[in-house]
Structure formats: C-alpha cells, structure tokens
Amino acid sequence: DGDAARGEDGDPLFSRGRNRGTTIPSGRSGEKGRDVKRILIADDDESIRWVLRKTVTGMGFAADLAEDGEQALALLGKNTYAAAFVDIRMPGMEGIEVLERVEARKSPTRFFIMTAVRRPDVAARSTRAGAAEFITKPFDLSRVEELLRDVASEASSRELPYPPGAREDRGSER
C-alpha cells in the first residue's frame, strides 16, 4: 500500500496537477482565530501601514489594515484582534476616539497608540481610553517586535490557564 500518497491517476498527491477541477474544502479551523492571531493596523499613512504589516506578518500574525478611524471601528466590530496599532491623528475620527468607542479598557485587544508628537495630555487621555502602550513615530521597529512578542506570549498563556501560586500553597500548611 505504498500507493496511499498517490492520486487516482498515479500522480503524487502533492504534485502540481493535484487540483484538477476539484476543490478540497479546507477545514476552516483558523476562522475562530485560534491558530493565527490577528493584528489591526490603523493609520492614514500608507508607508506606516506597509512597514507595520510587513513586521506583523513576518512574525506570524495576520494583519488587517484600516486607513481611518471609521474603517478601524468597523473592523474592530467584526473581528477579534490580539492587538491594534492605532494612529492618533487620522482623518474623520481620531485614534483615541476609536479606543473610546470600542471601550478598549474592557477589550481583550491590546491597543497601541501611535503618534508623531508626544504630548503628556494626549498620553494621559490615551491611557484613560485603554491604550496599553504609546509609540512615538518614527518608531523603533525592534520596540514594535518586542510588543508583538509580548502579545504572542500573552495570547498563548491565556489559552493555558495555570493557577498562580498553585505549587507554593501546598507545603505552606505544614
């Protein structure tokens, strides 16, 4: 039965001629967002979206792009994101307003606010709105990668709940 890996026509299953008119439905397991963590990138500057998308996908995340606050809001309402990079200054709706509208404080998504001008009042308002981090442009990509690594490890640890201090408690009664 060494023929198991061959199609009816004797071609190895992984040959190019494999999909002759038949579509193999992929088990849509990734749809629940369990396998690939999604990251939202909201910025009206195309070069920033491009650089962030490249960084995000290079680290194994799926990236969704929004060029203004309205688009960001629509995507946030539709999908679950592990994190979102949101520019503070966008046409129409500003980044902070996006955070306020989606109630970022209660959301499992980690929001990173991006800004070209670091102002204390804005930083305070972003934090109140639920921003986890404030990134100043032009940003350091290694910092962005660091934040994404945190998101990745945080997301995977959330899937394996381990009661904190469970080991230490046992011996303490003696």
Give a description of the structure.
- The protein is of the alpha/beta class and 174 residues long.
- It is 38% helix and 16% strand.
- It has helices spanning 46-58, 69-78, 95-101, 120-129, 141-159, 166-172; strands spanning 38-42, 62-66, 83-87, 110-115, 131-136.
- A five-stranded parallel beta sheet has the order 2-1-3-4-5, sandwiched between helices.
- Helix 2 (69-78) packs parallel to helix 3 (95-101).
Report on the biggest sheet. Answer: 5 strands, parallel
Cα radius of gyration in angstroms: 22 Å
Strand segment tally: 5
Order of helices and strands: EHEHEHEHEHH
Secondary-structure-based class equals: alpha/beta
**Which regions have little confidence, pLDDT < 50, spanning 5+ residues?**
11-20, 22-33, 161-174
Question: Strand order of the main beta sheet, please?
Answer: 2-1-3-4-5
- Assembly state of the chains shown: single chain
Helix amount, in percent?
A: 25-40%
**Number of H- or I-type helical stretches:** 6
For the residues shown, what is the average pLDDT? Answer: 79
- Strand fraction band? 15-25%
> Which outline best applies?
globular
Measured between the Cα atoms of the first and last residue, the distance is 62 Å
Q: Could you name the key traits of this structure?
A:
174 residues; alpha/beta; five-stranded parallel sheet; 6 helices; 16% strand; globular
Brief summary:
The protein is built from 6 helices and 5 strands; from the N terminus they run E-H-E-H-E-H-E-H-E-H-H.
